[in-house]
């Protein structure tokens, strides 16, 4: 696998406009709803209630081949943890499961939320099941472009015209708008289809966790990502985000296939309670149970940004191959809705613990490859030969004598030729250093830095010719640092690129990297692969930053990077941090069969 180094010399600026952002909501596909307008927040009152509507569909009478194991368990587990730990009274949690979750019943309960709640109340709406959109080429269901749909239990694709879809633009927006206009604080979670691809789609794979290339997209997913980008480029600028207090957590981005973890896959990808779940929901439950530390700022609450970062980090470690999305996106979040607490029962969130101890990258080596272990020597913080259940990565033989480096989930990260095992050292260096730096940053940061790769709707997946920027919006006045780790393990500084960029950015201001202008964008070109980024916002200028300005191709043991690690320790609690992954791909026609 090759990698496209993300430093500016490798990704030349393009004179064309960066590809327009297309805004679609995971599962609900509310394309016209995703650009933030205003986000005024009402104060929490002493009498404010917490209400929830939880919808899960595992069985479809008219689609018997499309059974999902996770949704019924998703709803049961989420209801339990909300009532047991987060202050939701049993009478205020309504569940609709399988046949109960008809379109009419879902719409009725959405409308009832308005009558059951008052201004200032917290309303959680959760969907788990199949979804579709106009870009879902396999389903061919009547969904308008620019919207998506949840599939209720009574969906009947044999009916002409109205098949019973719950279409975001048509059915969900009015209900959400009424709650928003009424001053409710709404959090929507969708563990279902994201507009632009199949998440838990009709006619699912028969395998437990359908294998696909990570970071490279495979087959249909790549076709759909390409189609999504082309349609988005032709679309008109979306209307402003109409909500003031509606936040979203969505299972995946465009061009990605999210995972349902069935019973037969639990030995490979165990869930927290040993029952089938959606991958997003399993990660979310771990956060809500306090098993995944997510309270980065230690205030005892969970913000949308903290939940998103917590589930994203866990799912990235497991390499499920899809990226949870928070909405509004960072570039749209002018009034810090992402920093608002989505769960306000104090003392339930697990704080992120300071642990700067060097954690090795753990690799399980198949027995037939143990004689060749020395070919991978020289990678620091690498622990070989661990049991597969404890490994981060697996090295295994493949057809033709090739060697595959995969995540524990089985998803492929890199492939070496029979005589090229040493070629995997670069990927191991990259992942080892990225893990080490993440541990240092997590141990010493005071908060999660709102940051993303723009357009955020693609979840870090981009094809050849696509333009992109890194976007961040610090909560305090800050001096910025953006590091890129390429697939050879080399580290480059993307920001600051010159001394002028060392000036602090005002609190709440948006900074796009490399810049705001139409010619200031990074453009994807060969070679393709994955780069890992670490983004820092320092509350005061860190010592030694001038030595990192525009530094390119640094080895992980470079003295300047060692000094940065010491700086992170010295600035404990005085910076925010985030990490991203950029995955680039050729267009489908260029891929070899």
Automatic annotation (TrEMBL):
Database matches in SUPFAM superfamilies: Caspase-like
Entry-linked Gene3D superfamilies: 3.40.50.1460
Highest taxon, organism lineage: Bacteria
A biological process from GO: proteolysis
An annotated GO cellular component: cytoplasm
InterPro entries on file: Caspase-like_dom_sf, DUF4384, EF_Hand_1_Ca_BS, Metacaspase, Pept_C14_caspase
Pfam families: DUF4384 (PF14326), Peptidase_C14 (PF00656)
GO molecular function: cysteine-type endopeptidase activity
Residue intervals of the DUF4384 domain: 462-532
Occurrences of domain Peptidase C14 caspase (ranges): 49-316
Protein name per UniProt: Uncharacterized protein DUF4384
Organism of derivation: Sphaerotilus mobilis
